[in-house]
Amino acid sequence: MKKIILFRHGKSSWESGVRDFERDLAQNGVERTHKSAKKLLEILDFHIDIWYSSPARRAERTAMITASYFTESPQISLDQRLYTFSYFDLLKFIKGLDNSFETAIFFGHNEAYTEFANRMGNVFLRNLPTSGIVIIEFDADKWEALEKGRTLNVIKPKEL
User: Per-domain residue ranges for the chain?
Assistant: First the structure.
């Protein structure tokens, strides 16, 4: 069984003159990310084998805040291919993961995350909010064999 955690980056700042890639988290983005990370740790009943993040500043900071809640100090791999808003790019990346990993967490962007949750999970989301998390389990032994899975949890920080 393979499991994926998609953690959408926290609400970002919209400072003028800052490129999209370099936008940082807004203060309420930091606060909501802490809430979601705490809730994730509370409900998690399995080990996360590998951590990936888009290298965009807002996604990387969301990953770093979340990692601070885990005692094993996970290593976060930044990958340019995850700076995507495309479900198809995200799915291609995930299907290429090393099969020795059972679970993976990703920090990144919409529309890719909402569309992935809707196409690959079994709970419809109008929108995965910033600092929102969806956990999906797949009845597969190999990443490349992923088909529609089962949504285990959805965390929305405004509901915490």
Answer: 2-12+19-151
